[in-house]
Design a protein that fits this description.
Elements (H helix, E strand, L loop, with lengths): L31 H21 L2 H13 L21 H17 L6 E5 L5 H17 L2 H15 L1 E20 L7 E18 L4 E3 L14 E7 L1 H8 L10 H9 L38 E7 L3 E6 L3 E7 L7 E5 L12 H27 L3 E3 L8 E3 L13 E2 L6 H19 L15 H14 L1 H26 L2 H12 L7 H6 L2 E5 L2 H9 L4 H9 L1 H10 L5 H12 L3 H4 L5 H11 L1 H50 L1
Helix pairs in contact: 2-8, 3-5, 3-8, 3-10, 4-11, 4-12, 8-9
């Protein structure tokens, strides 16, 4: 008994003929039988295209080059091995570029900036930024972006997908026991949370429209994503109103317990079954004795206006219009190829350099081995040619005229070839940020920053392209689906959990305000933070009396509070912790200080203090003058006495 025996099973029709009645336009119904035929036909066509273009072999070669697995060979006619050192040129380039790209994309705690379109309340803009940060954290956005970047670098192409799901999580709370022991007990409570999702899709698990001529999956007529899962996922889909025909638990138990339904592999032609070091086992292989853990295949056919989901190539469990009105797939290439969806990656660009360096290095090591363990020649008899004597540890050579075979040194030539190849490889993929920088400069923070900026400058084109095709569209999708899925109470709850207080403005400002999303690449971040140096100058400018009079004449005023908040945001500080609401006592104290009576009293007190200080200074001056007169008089009196004596 298998899935084909279920009442809900749909048998694939003959897709060569489609009647006019089976054609479905937007907002019209598409029969499940026709939908199944479309999915299976598109899978076959797209898989044939990928195989015909040797994409499978390219990905397989990229994996081998990344691992740089070398197979040592023996010397001719003997059992001793020749040099078999692997040179991971591709791995070094990928691991050198990936951190630089990630540093450019996530150069700040908040890796994006919202620019308002039109008049947007600042509080609403900041609330939208916090909602986006909440979405990126729950969707593990940074880690999935890292996987996308590595796929781009290694294979030359990446595919990602955004969506929405409800997850079950646990909340832990600790309380003291009430039995008098004062021990701490843990209380675990399950709760559900709905949030956006973002995931990188392995290239071997996705097929895109073969007629697509650019590296943007959003413009493809269709794409098919393969998901290998188990029966637990079907339990979740059964409760989703968007799915149908999902087998019941009893039907699944009967099918899986008898092992009558093995997982299908619709994309087998695009996957190589070779096993390398650290290579995971195929997803379709059964790894557990638990029948509910048996692998099942789900195919999701995605277009701009429709989603079709097929279980085990037999049952259509979803056939609905696209909920968001557009494709949820995003893609980008490392180096675009004209007229092609796939691009060139580091493996394709540096495979030749890796083979060259491996060959030269191992040949050089073979020459060194021959120099350290040379062969000899010995004469045998009269008028005979010399004979090679094989040398091995512990072997005693005897005979007349034992002559070592001369082996020329090739070290200088080999080093020159290796250095030239390495410089050429770094220049080819943009990883030569430190070519003109002394090694000792990398020991300082300034040197490391200069190196990262040099690499980022070389990769600026790819960073901008990746941001426009993957990074920003994913964040825009997050914002759209949060507006569609979250109610005002949900948004207030999220903001309360993040800031400790709900949003105080109009909630419609968050929904209706329009803004653009910009990526804070390292160069943009440096320019953005450089503007913080202009804040004191701007404060002096707007505080000048002439500017204030001009503002008053035009009927406007300067918002000092907003300037301070923006300056704190630029510096990366938390303005909510530094600018806090004033208490009623603080307000009364400030009003008392600023009242006219208080100001007048302070002025009178200051005037009295100044008058008293002047009087004291006059008294002191008078005393000093009198003391001087007395001193002079005393001196004159003493002088007169002396004259009389004379």
């Amino acid at each position: 008994m298998g899935f084909e025996s279920l009442d809900t099973a749909i048998v694939a029709p003959n897709t060569a003929q489609v009647t006019p009645e089976q054609v479905a336009w937007r907002n019209q119904t598409l029969e499940d039988e026709t939908a199944l035929g479309i999915v299976l036909h598109d899978v076959q066509v797209a898989e044939a295209f990928a195989s015909g273009k040797n994409m499978t072999n390219d990905w397989e070669r990229a994996d081998n080059n990344f691992r740089a697995a070398g197979l040592p060979k023996n010397w001719p006619g003997v059992e001793s091995q020749r040099a078999g050192m692997a040179v991971p040129v591709v791995l070094e380039a990928v691991e050198k570029l990936e951190p630089a790209i990630m540093l450019a994309l996530f150069s700040d705690k908040q890796p994006f900036l919202l620019e308002p379109i039109g008049r947007v309340p600042p509080d609403a803009l900041r609330a939208k930024e916090k909602l986006l940060m909440w979405a990126t954290q729950l969707s593990e956005f940074k880690e999935e972006i890292r996987k996308c970047v590595k796929s781009c670098l290694l294979y030359g192409f990446t595919v990602a997908r955004w969506g929405w799901k409800t997850s079950t999580r646990q909340q832990k709370k600790y309380e003291l026991t009430t039995d008098g022991t004062n021990k701490v007990k843990k209380i675990v409570k399950d709760y559900e949370i709905s949030h956006p999702t973002f995931e990188n899709i392995e290239l071997r698990n996705v097929l895109v429209d073969p007629s697509l001529r650019e590296s943007d999956a959003r413009k493809a007529r269709f794409a098919v994503v393969q998901i290998i899962t188990d029966a637990s996922v079907l339990d979740q889909l059964r409760d989703d109103p968007g799915y149908k025909n999902v087998p019941t638990r009893d039907e699944l138990a009967q099918i899986l317990a008898t092992n009558s339904e093995a997982a299908t592999e619709s994309m087998a032609a695009g996957k190589n079954m070779s096993y390398r070091d650290n290579q995971a086992a195929p997803q379709t292989e059964k790894q557990s004795l638990d029948p509910t853990k048996a692998p099942l295949e789900i195919l999701e056919w995605i277009s701009g206006d429709r989603i079709i989901t097929v279980l085990q190539r037999k049952i259509v469990i979803r056939n609905t219009e696209s909920e968001f009105g557009r494709s949820s797939l995003l893609s980008c290439a490392f180096i675009d190829v004209p007229g092609s969806m796939y691009g060139f990656g580091v493996s394709k660009l540096l495979a030749g350099e890796q083979y060259l360096q491996t060959s030269v290095l191992n040949s050089w090591l073979d020459v060194v081995a021959l120099q350290l363990n040379p062969g000899f020649t010995a004469e045998q008899g009269l008028q005979t040619t010399s004979q090679n004597i094989k040398l091995s540890p512990g072997k005693i050579l005897t005979g007349p005229k034992l002559t070592p075979i001369p082996i020329p040194s090739v070290g200088a030539e080999a080093l020159q070839v290796l250095q030239t190849s390495e410089s050429r490889a770094n220049r080819r993929v943009g990883a030569n940020g430190a070519d003109n920088m002394p090694t000792q400069a990398l020991r300082t923070a300034q040197g490391v920053n200069a190196f990262n900026e040099g690499v980022a400058d070389k990769l600026q084109n790819f960073i901008e392209k990746f941001a426009e095709k993957v990074f920003i569209p994913a964040l825009e999708a997050f914002m759209d689906i949060m507006h569609d899925k979250l109610q005002p109470k949900d948004i207030n709850q999220i903001l309360t959990d993040l800031d400790g207080k709900a949003y105080e403005g109009s909630m419609l400002d968050i929904y209706n305000s329009r803004c653009t999303i910009q990526v804070l690449a390292s160069t943009k971040l440096a320019a953005r933070r450089a503007t913080t140096q202009l804040v004191p100058l701007l404060m002096q400018l707007v505080s000048a009396s002439a500017v204030q009079e001009s503002f008053a004449a035009q009927g406007v005023k300067f918002n000092y509070a907003e300037l301070v908040e923006e300056a704190l945001d630029l510096a990366g500080w938390d303005c909510e912790s530094l600018i806090v609401p004033a208490s009623q006592e603080d307000i009364q104290r400030a009003m008392a200080i600023a009242s006219p009576e208080q100001v007048r009293a302070q002025a009178q007190s200051a005037q009295q203090d100044k008058q008293q200080q002047n009087d004291l200074e006059k008294i002191e001056d008078t005393g000093v003058m009198r003391a001087g007169i007395q001193v002079v008089k005393h001196v004159l009196d003493q002088s007169g006495v002396e004259n009389n004596l004379i």
